[in-house]
Design brief:
This protein is an all-beta fold. It is built from no helices and 2 strands.
């Protein structure tokens, strides 16, 4: 069985902030809505001891062979609802998509 490795890197929020939402009736390949309960996962994405950032988050999902991904919606929250670095306009997300599929 041969596997083809496909890699695409997408810059999100490069120039401006965007607001999005997902309604339960919307088409989605994989929807993982935020868990607003006290059981929701917390991920520390701030400065580490070496002065760099801890910003690695991962998730897996399956996509059919004839299916295209056309956009992403990413939910995030901040400690005490205070944005770092002076505002939401200064926050950048870099999303990497790594996939394997059979040929």
């Amino acid at each position: 069985m041969k596997r083809l490795f496909f890699c695409a890197v997408v810059s999100v929020l490069a120039a401006s902030s965007a607001f999005g939402h997902w309604d339960p009736g919307d088409n989605a390949l994989f929807a993982l809505l935020p868990d607003l309960s006290s059981n929701g996962a917390d991920v520390y994405a701030g400065l580490n001891q070496l002065g760099g950032f801890n910003v690695f988050i991962a998730d897996d999902f399956s996509v059919g062979s004839n299916t295209k991904m056309t956009d992403f919606h990413l939910w995030g929250s901040w400690l005490n609802d205070v944005y770092p670095f002076g505002g939401a306009g200064n926050i950048l997300f870099y999303i990497g998509v790594f996939g394997e599929f059979q040929i």
